[in-house]
Design goal:
The structure holds 2 protein chains of 2 kinds. Chain A is an all-beta fold. In chain A, strands 1-3-8-7-6 form a 5-stranded antiparallel beta sheet, with no helix packed on it. A 5-stranded mixed beta sheet of chain A has the order 2-10-9-4-5, with no helix packed on it. In chain A, strand 4 and strand 5 form a beta hairpin. By secondary structure, chain B is an all-beta fold. Chain B has a domain of about 80 residues: Immunoglobulins (Immunoglobulin-like). In chain B, about 0% of the residues lie in helices and about 50% in strands. Chain B has no helices and 11 strands. In chain B, strand 9 and strand 10 form a beta hairpin. The radius of gyration of chain B is 13 Å and the shape is globular. Classes of the chains: A mainly beta, B mainly beta.
Chain lengths: ~110, ~110
C-alpha cells in the first residue's frame, strides 16, 4: 500500500487569497487524481495528472505533478467560498481498482 | 437516475442494532464500490462488486459487515450489532465498465451509533 501524506491538514483563508495544498509519497505514482469533497457530499474528481512535470489548469485551480512523480500540488488563485471543501489525492490504481485516498486537506474560505 | 443515490442520508442507531444502507448506482454501471470515511479522514475501501459478483471484500472491518448486490444494480451494506466505532460516513461509488474507470460517488450515509 502506498502511503500518502497530505499537507496541511487544515487551511482557513480569506476570500481572494491564494492557497497551495500538497500530496506526497515515498513511492512513485503512475498517475494521480485530485478530488474535492464538499460538506455533506461525496468526492468529485477534479483532475488526473499522468506525466512527471505536468501542469494542468482548471479555471483558478492549477495542478502540478512532480518531475519524479512522487509529489503533487494544487494551487488555488483568488479563492472563493465555493472552494471550501476537503481536497483529497489518490493514486490511480495500476493493477488494482480500489482507490486509496490520503487524509485530505480541509480548506475553508471565509467570505 | 442522474447520479449515485444513497439512502438514508442519516442514520442513528443504538449500539447493538442492525442497520442497512442502500446504494442506487448510475444506471448501466457495472462496477460498484463501498467506502468508509471516518471524521477528518479520506475514504477507505470496503468492498467491490462487478455486476452481482462480490470480487473483493478485503476492506470489510469485521464479519458484522455484509454487502450484497443480488441483481447487479442496487446494493445494500448491512452492519449487524453496530458498535460506536462503526460511526462514519459510508460512501458508495459506481463506474462504467471496467473497475479502473472513473468512480462517481454518492453523497453518503452518515451513521451515528450511540
Amino acid at each position: 500500500t502506498q502511503l500518502l501524506e497530505q499537507s496541511p491538514q487544515f487551511l482557513s483563508i480569506q476570500e481572494g487569497e491564494n492557497l497551495t495544498v500538497y500530496c506526497n509519497s515515498s513511492s512513485v505514482f503512475s498517475s494521480l487524481q485530485w478530488y474535492r469533497q464538499e460538506p455533506g457530499e461525496g468526492p468529485v474528481l477534479l483532475v488526473t495528472v499522468v506525466t512527471g512535470g505536468e501542469v494542468k489548469k482548471l479555471k483558478r485551480l492549477t495542478f502540478q505533478f512532480g518531475d519524479a512523480r512522487k509529489d503533487s500540488s494544487l494551487h488555488i488563485t483568488a479563492a472563493q467560498p465555493g472552494d471550501t471543501g476537503l481536497y483529497l489525492c489518490a493514486p490511480v490504481p495500476v493493477n488494482d481498482y480500489k482507490l486509496s485516498f490520503g487524509a485530505g486537506t480541509t480548506v475553508t474560505v471565509r467570505a | 437516475g442522474a447520479g449515485v443515490s444513497q439512502s438514508p442520508r442519516y442514520k442513528v442507531a443504538k449500539r447493538g442494532q442492525d442497520v442497512a444502507l442502500r446504494c442506487d448506482p448510475i444506471s448501466g454501471h457495472v462496477s460498484l464500490f463501498w467506502y468508509q470515511q471516518a471524521l477528518g479522514q479520506g475514504p477507505e475501501f470496503l468492498t467491490y462488486f462487478q455486476n452481482e459478483a462480490q470480487l473483493d471484500k478485503s476492506g470489510l472491518p469485521s464479519d458484522r459487515f455484509f454487502a450484497e448486490r443480488p441483481e447487479g444494480s442496487v446494493s445494500t451494506l448491512k452492519i449487524q450489532r453496530t458498535q460506536q466505532e462503526d460511526s462514519a460516513v459510508y460512501l458508495c461509488a459506481s463506474s462504467l465498465g471496467l473497475a479502473k474507470n472513473i468512480q462517481y460517488f454518492g453523497a453518503g450515509t452518515r451513521l451515528s451509533v450511540l
